[in-house]
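Field notebook, page 207. I keep forgetting to write these up properly, so this time I am using the form the group agreed on. The chain and the ligand, thymidine-5'-phosphate, are recorded exactly as supplied. Prediction of the bound pose follows.
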Amino acid sequence: MNRGIFITFEGIEGAGKTTQVRLLAEKFKKEGLKVIQTFEPGDTQVGGKIREILLNPSLSINPNCELLLYFADRIQHIEEKIKPALEAGIIVLCDRFTDSTIAYQGYGRQISIELIKKLNTLILKDFTPDFTIILDLPAHIGLNRNKKINKRDRFEIEDIDFHNRVREGYLDICKNEPERFIVIDATKATEEVSEEIYKKVKTKFRL
Ligand code: TMP
């Protein structure tokens, strides 16, 4: 059996990742493709507990502790969900992965990117997505979208400079590995963005 395909969705707050993961999964399911949707942090039983800590705005968390909690969530997620699905030939659509850690903890919190990459190699053995979609938009637009739906977690309460750094981080990361990424203008209408993603993924993997 062929291995499945591991596709991740990335972007700042309010970029619409969760919606786009769902829409792509729906399109693929209609075509009879085997697909699952998942997310980080928190899509395992252990990860759910880690997510509660990570997003709790009343907790003050040391940046390195935060970093290690994201890796703790990720290794559980890979071993429990992602790898078994890929081995069963399933397409895995994942809302955030290691590029989030580089963008948020590296560019946002300004932890050494070299350290994050070393941890990635040590803990994940460089387990990398096959393809990554970056939904890009100005930080103030994304934050306003989330304000309207009252989403205020430990990251959404960070100042605009933090979110601008995260956005710049994503745009920087994809320059180093252009073949793995596409950057999509997330200010466009939801269905337009969805069609663009669908066409790119279909073409890239000849689905
Ligand atoms: P979300 O489910 O709303 O995307 O929330 C996850 C939050 O966690 C979001 O603000 C981004 C942040 N995050 C990191 O800072 N580093 C990471 O590695 C991941 C996966 C998420």
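OBSERVATIONS:
- Residues 13, 40-41, 70, 96, 100-101, 104-105, 155 surround thymidine-5'-phosphate (CB under 6 Å).
- The chain is about 55% helix and 15% strand.
FOLLOW-UP: compare against the apo run.
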